Amino acid sequence: MRILALTSSWPRHAEDHCGRFVADLHEALQGLGHSVTTIAPASDGAPVSENSAAGEVVRVGRDEGVFQRRGVEHEIRRRPWKWRGVVRFMHEARDALAAFEAESELLLVHWPVPLLRAVAKDWSTPILGIAHGADLALLRHPLLAAMLGRGRVRGRLAGLLTVRRVDPVLIAKIFGALPVAVHAMGANSRVFRPAGVMDPEAKGRVLGVGRFERLKGFDLLLRAAAACELPVMLLGDGPERAHLVRLARDLQVDLLAPGFRGREAVAAALRSARVLVQPSRRGFFGREEGFPVAVMEARATGCPVLASRTGGLPERLHAEELFVADDLADLVRQLRPYGRIPAAARPEADPFASAEATARALLGLVPPRPVRQH
User: Fold this and answer.
1) Rounded to an integer, what distance in angstroms lies between the CA atom of residue 261 and that of residue 199?
2) Cβ atoms within 10 A of the Cβ of 355, count?
3) Do residues 126 and 237 share a domain?
4) Are residues 159 and 232 in the same domain?
5) What's the order of all strands across the beta sheet hosting 2-6?
6) Residue 30 pLDDT > 60, yes or no?
7) Domain coverage including residue 312
8) Which of 333, 286, 330 is nearest to 310 (CA)?
9) pTM beyond 0.70, yes or no
């Protein structure tokens, strides 16, 4: 099947974490025998078009810093005028989509609120949507979702995949009646698997992976590690780096924070770490992460996981893997036993955690082709 996809997030280079989960899904679709062409925002230094394991990529518009930094939601909240950059991207994306329409059999739209507005109303092939994190927050504010999608959303999708459960009444109110599947974005199975290179620096450490910002809750991880006298490795970077380094020093936590690492290095750290802690918390207007990809990467490599009860995490993880969001005492209670568990004691890899599993859940929403009458 020839699949055309529209996304506002895509890696700018081989080791870029921005939109990597989108590229991994498209690579999985390619691996299942489909052909994928992706329309994504332009970025300085990235080619206008290229071919990769994830298929053909065409970048449109110009880099205005609205997609590639901390995400559209954050950038627009801080600089509302940047909404014009989103509108410009959608106009140019509409032209690019039109150029590929005739040869496509399925259109896949990530973040369908509001990106579905970029698709012409007379679009002929079936459209599937994938709701991730920020757009799920919009869905919980029906008036805002209706404003962003007015005249462009309702009745247009043939199916919707969400990374966490959403009230079906709310989905029907915004999109109309349609089939819905729930599946988190899976990890790239070529990279995230139990066997492979180990990271000696990560051995026995508590691991955190992601952008250093308040929503991720890494300050809580450091406080819990201090209480349990466990060393920590944080892979990532962001505006809270200086604060986290100072906090670790004040708490006398043995912290390694080498910055962003490529996927192979993250996989090696997950194979070696004592446990991955995902201490996500709620942000502005009840904003939550949908289902952090680092958790799926950990489960794909067999790394133990502790995660907060936010977003879709309680829907997939077991009670003993969860703690109350932003509750230091509960995290300490759950983390303390890991100080007594040998680092070699690993759970089995979870087949649900692969991008291929996500791709199959998505393809299950594809409507049957009409039977031609002879």
Assistant:
1) 12
2) 26
3) no
4) no
5) 49-52, 55-60, 35-41, 2-6, 106-110, 127-131, 159-162, 180-182
6) yes
7) 206-353
8) 286
9) yes
